[in-house]
Specification:
This protein has 8 helices and 13 strands. It is an alpha+beta fold and about 260 residues long. It has 2 domains: about 5-140, Fructose-1,6-Bisphosphatase, subunit A, domain 1 (Fructose-1,6-Bisphosphatase, Chain A, domain 1); about 150-260, D-Maltodextrin-Binding Protein, domain 2 (3-Layer(aba) Sandwich), CATH 3.40.190.80. The protein has an 8-stranded mixed β-sheet with strand order 2-1-3-4-5-6-7-8, with helices on both faces. Strands 10-9-11-13-12 form a 5-stranded mixed β-sheet, sandwiched between helices. Helix 1 (about 5-30) runs antiparallel to helix 2 (about 35-60). The longest helix has 27 residues, at about 5-30. The radius of gyration is 18 Å and the shape is globular.
Amino acid sequence: MSTQSALLKVMSDAARKAARGLNRDFGELAELQVSKKGAADYVSAADLKAEQTLFEALAKARPGYSFLGEERGLIEGTDKTHTWIVDPLDGTTNFLHAIPHFAINIALQREGVVVAAVTYNPITNELYWAEKGKGAFVNDKRLRVAARRHLDESVLATGIPFLGHGQHAKFLKELHQISQRVAGVRRFGAAALDMAFVAAGRFDGFWERDLKPWDMAAGLLLIAEAGGKVTNADGEDDVLGSGSVLASNLELHPLILEKLKLAN
């Protein structure tokens, strides 16, 4: 059954509302192609505006919930058991370069566990959503992780450390171990969509280090509810705290993990 609960409807409506502004800004940015500084400023303004829209919509629907956002950090609410974890624009660099691959990410954490998730790509109008114990969906279609069992048939996604971020040498070792054993490695520049694509069975797996909770929180639940397995990149349970992720189906997960360990 792909009918959204009241909670999911609140999250989806908030994402669509924020997306209207991002779509407008994206269209203008594609026209602008302005100087580096101008474009970057423009994007951070779009980012802030989207987060403000999300903050207001979620606060109105669920007063008192805490809010952890990329732009404003943690705002503690009166209700200490619930926290929204929000990335108003995942894939900022894509957005900045008028590449139509970015997402709005909203997760709800209840007593430390992610119980509801929305990842929305405004350009393709694909809304990925999940609620704990109720399955994962894109729009009204049920999601399942891919069924491939062999690395040599698999396409994996990752993120490449960029200027001032992450451990480049470690990444290259991991890429070396994995790329020679799989059908392909993709780097699309939006971790939220990489994880949604694993849930949808488009990617067979995804690994990345140096991520933030708002990059991963929604994807964790999407993949788990689509029948996949998510750990950190070292195979441990603490994903949000560790800042790294390894996600795939149950069969491939140990095979990918084994290759990552060879790189260390």
